[in-house]
Structure formats: structure tokens, C-alpha cells
């Protein structure tokens, strides 16, 4: 049997179309015509030997073969992009100071920074995990080159909005550990020490809904928040990023809706050097 050699440009079109939920959007993103995209998908199906897409309403979803191809396609493209970055930046050297909230510490440090370090071993990264206020202070005082922060109405001269995340009410995975509230027993909240964007959103939403609450536990660290909620001390408001297995999103219609929370990437300089720019690109690729 002849071996199949996939065209990575075609694979990128397929993966992008699935991730954007539209091959018309993929065509626009990749700078191709819709007819060219259709021809690429047809070529891919011919190589696979079976359909990789199926109609679902007005859109398209991957078939079982398409799901398998999607998983491998993502890995192929990631390795290709990592190899291209390593070749282009083989001589990059320097030092980058990066700041981020605890929510992204595990994902960014293990995935994105791992990819970056393999491609650019001569660049040293100093990572700072801190609260929003501290990160913005470090950014404005010139002590960070790049910083991820939640959008709280404070901007810096060189910042860009990356995306928005829904906020959720979060409680212990064990329903028996989830607290209830009555007029005599206000809803117990677990939150960061003030000031905290998500704490403010939680209390404002409860006040608008006329739901009594009390601060049952506060902590300066996210691990402390997670531990208190898992122990049943109360519920909290976070995004689902980094949500531990012993916690879950609470689906309770009695709790008020919460707004979306934006994420921004700040850079110290308008035109950073090549090393900082490359790290910025990898972060944006991972999060957007």
C-alpha cells in the first residue's frame, strides 16, 4: 500500500476550518478563496479515502475519520511551526521577563514556555506569577517585558485584547459539600483578598439579584481558593481555566448570570526585539 504524505498547507486549512467553525472564515484567515479551500478539503478526503466532514445544520463537523485526522493534524502543525521557529531563531539570545496570573501558570509555563525553550535554548525567561494589580504595576514600572492580565479597565500604552472567557460559579465536585443559602444563612463566598475583579463581579451580581452573601474565606493565592472550595467552605467565581478535578461549574438557575472577562497581553515596548516578539506570537497562538 502506498504511503500517504499529507500536505501541511492543506492540513492547516482543515484544522483552521474546524477550530473556527467555518471554512469561509478559514479562507479569510489564511488568505485563500473559498473555492481553493474546498479543493483542498476534497484533496484531503481523497488522500484519506473516506469523508472527513459531515453536515450539521448549516455547518460542518468532522466525521470519526475527521476527528482522528484533526488530532494528528494539530500535532503535525505544532511540530512544523516549532521547527520553523527554531530554524528562524536559532541565533536568538537574550532575557525575557514575563508576568501572568496564577490561572495561566500551569498551562503557559508547561506548554507555551516549553515550546519556546526548545526552539530558543539561548534565551532565558524569568516568569513572575502575581495578581493583576501587581502585574500592571510591574509592567508600568518597566520590570516586565510581557504580561498577561485580566481586563479590569486599566490599560497600558502597548496592550492588546486577546479573547474573553465566561466566568462561572464554582463549587466542590461533591454535591454534599456545596453550601446552600437562606435568608438566615447567607451564601458563603470564597475569594481572593481585595482588590479582585472576580470577587467584585460575584458580589455585584449577588447584590443585583438580592441574594444575601458573606465572605467565608479569603486567600492571597489561587491554590488557597481551590482548596477552600473543595473543602466545602463556600463557592467562588472564576473562569474554567485550570479548574481542578475536585471542583465543578455550578449549574444553578437561582444564581445570577456573570459577565465575560477579557484577557489582555501587555508589552513594554511598541516594537520589542525578536525574542520577545516570538514569545508573544506563541502566547497568542496558544490562547486565541
UniProtKB/TrEMBL annotation:
Keyword Transcription regulation included in the entry's annotation: yes
Residue ranges of every copy of the HTH lysR-type domain listed in the record: 6-63
InterPro entries: LTTR, LysR_HTH_N, LysR_subst-bd, WH-like_DNA-bd_sf, WH_DNA-bd_sf
The entry's keywords: DNA-binding, Transcription, Transcription regulation
DNA-binding among keywords: yes
PROSITE patterns, A to Z: HTH_LYSR (PS50931)
PANTHER family: HTH-TYPE TRANSCRIPTIONAL REGULATOR LRHA-RELATED, TRANSCRIPTIONAL REGULATOR
Similarity annotation: Belongs to the LysR transcriptional regulatory family.
Protein name: LysR family transcriptional regulator
Source organism phylogeny: Bacteria, Pseudomonadati, Pseudomonadota, Betaproteobacteria, Burkholderiales
Amino acid at each position: 500500500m502506498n504511503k500517504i504524505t499529507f500536505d501541511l498547507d492543506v492540513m492547516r486549512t482543515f484544522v483552521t476550518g474546524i477550530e473556527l467553525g467555518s471554512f469561509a472564515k478559514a479562507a479569510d484567515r489564511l488568505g485563500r478563496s473559498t473555492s481553493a479551500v474546498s479543493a483542498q478539503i476534497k484533496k484531503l478526503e481523497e488522500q484519506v479515502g473516506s469523508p472527513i466532514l459531515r453536515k450539521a445544520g448549516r455547518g460542518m463537523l468532522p466525521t470519526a475519520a475527521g476527528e482522528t485526522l484533526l488530532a494528528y493534524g494539530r500535532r503535525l502543525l505544532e511540530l512544523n511551526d516549532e521547527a520553523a521557529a527554531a530554524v528562524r531563531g536559532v541565533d536568538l539570545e537574550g532575557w525575557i521577563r514575563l508576568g501572568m496570573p496564577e490561572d495561566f501558570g500551569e498551562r503557559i509555563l508547561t506548554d507555551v514556555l516549553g515550546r519556546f525553550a526548545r526552539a530558543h535554548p539561548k534565551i532565558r525567561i524569568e516568569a513572575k506569577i502575581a495578581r493583576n494589580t501587581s502585574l500592571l504595576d510591574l509592567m508600568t514600572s518597566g520590570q516586565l517585558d510581557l504580561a498577561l492580565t485580566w481586563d479590569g479597565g486599566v490599560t497600558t500604552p502597548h496592550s492588546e485584547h486577546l479573547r474573553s472567557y465566561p466566568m462561572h460559579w464554582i463549587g466542590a465536585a461533591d454535591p454534599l459539600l456545596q453550601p446552600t443559602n437562606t435568608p438566615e444563612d447567607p451564601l458563603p463566598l470564597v475569594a481572593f483578598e481585595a482588590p479582585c475583579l472576580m470577587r467584585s463581579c460575584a458580589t455585584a451580581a449577588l447584590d443585583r439579584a438580592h441574594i444575601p452573601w458573606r465572605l467565608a474565606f479569603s486567600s492571597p493565592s489561587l491554590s488557597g481558593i481551590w482548596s477552600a472550595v473543595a473543602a466545602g467552605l463556600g463557592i467562588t467565581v472564576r473562569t474554567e481555566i485550570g479548574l481542578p478535578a475536585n471542583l465543578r461549574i455550578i449549574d444553578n438557575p437561582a444564581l445570577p448570570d456573570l459577565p465575560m472577562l477579557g484577557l489582555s497581553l501587555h508589552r513594554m515596548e511598541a516594537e520589542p526585539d525578536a525574542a520577545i516578539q516570538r514569545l508573544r506570537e506563541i502566547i497568542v497562538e496558544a490562547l486565541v
